[in-house]
């Protein structure tokens, strides 16, 4: 029996659900409404249009075979009726009708439905700042925003830009301004690091240092008090600490789910916004589905509520909803929280929980950091990759992995491998023995993921006791007080420059010579072991343990991590 499906929202989930349903029930009718004139666009691509990586804004609204995804396309190609510039104002659940209003004419009507899909997405979080409505102050929400920003830059109107917020969009926009256009770019972040809660301070510092090397300036621990302008055009940003010149301002302080219409209809909504759904993407009304950026889903690592506004998730959920509208029983279990962001020639990626978020969720967690080549050491295009694994100590459960590396696919591939198994509560042993494709141009025989899990195993067993670059910095900064003996386990040629610069504190005994030179290593002082990546210093730690040394610390990540972290020796 044919039915009428009404979809509120036409960006990501809405079109996917509508088109999937029409393929399964071509005799049924689908009406998709959206208050904007632009529908079915790739919002995540906006920073890359501003940067010039995407040459034409229309590419964000076209198919892979270059057809514009407009109402005509949906009607003729997909069989879906689309009504743009039409705002849903109320859901009448008792009579199964949606009240709508034409945003241009103000005309009102109601549309009946058999089943309803709420795909209202999310809106940029507004800060309520004085001057937030000045020309040149933008959010990054739709292709119109992208066009305005890029046109201003192209006309030479933007010499300096201020980004408010150091999350995904903020960092991507900072790169877009600084890299392609050479704009003097500053980022103001209220917390003390980039990508707060998503990565550790160590990885955040590595990413920040790389962006600073490419011309981006960061101001952490500062709040924006006001945005000021002249003749209606933005000119400066006032923070709690300084005044920053700004010809353009991007507010990227996160997004808020558009769930008011659902709440007003009596549907279950999170106290901070977001529609609750079950595993079939149904709300508490069995005839109403919801998904995408307006939705709350389970976090499969913590078991708690999660809000994950990503186009990839919206598309997957859209297919599930379309299937279930046609009588199917497809399920969406939840999310583990996977991400990747490009930072000039590098990228930051992760899945699951960072150490801070794991502890906040109540886990007795620890983390280990590893730097290793992303492919065979003898292959000419090898690069160092940094990975951090978060583990629940009592159960050995892997809670998350985050990384910093090149902007290629190597690191993202490792993160995705872990993401695929996180919902099954893998242990260290599962990752240690994980089967991964191997060939020297692509990986080492003992892949970095396997080695990372082995490092976590050794750390839990107490045979690889160490600190990351932040811990090393603390030891180095207090070297006079703590009287640490810093022992470089590399060969003489690598260690000599540091011995010459710091003869009182920096010492060199190559790992292979330790047993023959024990008289040079004191037993009555803390010994801090350093090599290139932490592997040889781990071997040295085992050797010193055997000889009765009691206070030996290995620097995880070694000199590679120290350099990426920006420690001046």
UniProtKB/TrEMBL annotation:
Cofactor requirement: FAD
Enzyme class, spelled out: oxidoreductase
InterPro entries tied to this protein: FAD-bd_OxRdtase (IPR050260), FAD/NAD-bd_sf (IPR036188), FAD/NAD-binding_dom (IPR023753), FAD/NAD-linked_Rdtase_dimer_sf (IPR016156), Pyr_nucl-diS_OxRdtase_dimer (IPR004099), Rhodanese-like_dom (IPR001763), Rhodanese-like_dom_sf (IPR036873)
Enzyme Commission code(s) on record: 1.11.1.1
Transmembrane segments: none
UniProt GO molecular function: NADH peroxidase activity
Keywords noted in UniProt: FAD, Flavoprotein, Oxidoreductase, Peroxidase, Redox-active center
Domain of life (superkingdom): Bacteria
Domain Rhodanese: 507-567
Family to which this protein belongs: Belongs to the class-III pyridine nucleotide-disulfide oxidoreductase family.
Protein name according to UniProt: NADH peroxidase
Originating organism: Pseudodesulfovibrio hydrargyri
């Amino acid at each position: 029996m044919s039915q009428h499906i009404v979809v509120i929202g036409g960006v990501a989930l809405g079109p996917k659900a509508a088109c999937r349903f029409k393929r399964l029930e071509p005799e049924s009718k689908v009406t998709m409404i959206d208050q904007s004139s632009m529908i079915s666009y790739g919002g995540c691509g906006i920073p890359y249009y501003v940067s010039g990586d995407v040459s034409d804004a229309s590419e964000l609204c076209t198919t892979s075979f270059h057809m514009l995804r407009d109402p005509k396309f949906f009607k003729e190609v997909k069989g879906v009726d689309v009504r743009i510039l039409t705002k849903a104002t109320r859901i009448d659940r008792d009579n199964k009708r949606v009240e709508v209003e034409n945003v241009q004419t103000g005309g009102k009507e109601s549309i009946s439905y058999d089943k309803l899909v709420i795909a209202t997405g999310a809106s940029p979080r507004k800060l309520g700042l004085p001057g937030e409505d000045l020309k040149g102050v933008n959010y990054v929400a739709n292709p119109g925003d992208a066009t305005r920003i890029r046109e201003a830059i192209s006309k030479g109107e933007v010499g300096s830009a201020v980004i408010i917020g150091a999350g995904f969009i903020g960092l991507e926009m900072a790169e877009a301004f600084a890299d392609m256009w050479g704009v003097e770019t500053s980022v103001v972040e209220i917390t003390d690091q980039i990508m707060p809660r998503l990565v550790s301070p160590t990885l955040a510092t590595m990413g920040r240092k790389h962006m600073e090397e490419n011309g981006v300036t960061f101001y952490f621990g500062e709040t924006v008090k006001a945005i000021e302008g002249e003749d209606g055009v933005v000119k400066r940003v006032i923070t709690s600490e300084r005044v920053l010149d700004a010809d353009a301002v991007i507010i990227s302080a996160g997004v808020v789910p558009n769930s008011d219409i659902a709440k007003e209809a009596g549907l279950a909504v999170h106290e901070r916004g977001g529609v609750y759904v079950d595993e079939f993407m149904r709300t508490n009304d069995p005839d109403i589905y919801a998904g995408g950026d307006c939705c709350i889903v389970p976090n499969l690592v913590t078991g708690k509520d999660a809000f994950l506004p990503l186009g990839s998730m919206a598309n997957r959920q859209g297919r599930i909803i379309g299937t279930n509208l046609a009588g199917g029983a497809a399920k969406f279990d939840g999310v583990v929280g996977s991400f990747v962001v490009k930072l000039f020639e590098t990228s930051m990626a992760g899945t699951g929980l960072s150490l801070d978020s794991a502890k906040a969720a109540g886990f007795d967690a620890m983390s280990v950091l590893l730097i290793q080549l992303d492919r065979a050491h003898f292959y000419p295009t090898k690069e160092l990759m940094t990975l951090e694994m978060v583990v629940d100590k009592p159960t050995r459960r892997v809670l998350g992995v985050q990384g910093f590396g090149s902007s290629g696919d190597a690191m993202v591939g490792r993160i995705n491998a872990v993401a695929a198994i996180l919902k099954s509560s893998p242990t260290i042993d599962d990752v240690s023995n994980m089967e991964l494709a191997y060939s020297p141009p692509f990986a080492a025989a003992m892949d970095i993921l396997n080695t990372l899990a082995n490092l976590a195993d050794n750390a839990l067993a107490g045979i690889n006791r160490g600190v990351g670059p932040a811990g090393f910095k603390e030891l180095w900064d207090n070297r006079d007080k703590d009287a640490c003996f810093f022992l470089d386990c590399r060969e003489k040629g690598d260690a000599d420059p540091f011995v010459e610069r710091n003869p009182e504190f920096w010492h060199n005994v190559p790992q292979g010579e330790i047993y023959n030179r024990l008289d040079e290593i004191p037993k009555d002082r803390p010994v801090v072991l350093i090599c290139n990546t932490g592997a040889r210093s781990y071997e040295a730690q085992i050797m010193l343990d055997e000889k009765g040394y009691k206070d030996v610390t290995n620097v995880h990540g070694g000199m590679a991590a120290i350099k990426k972290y920006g420690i001046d020796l």
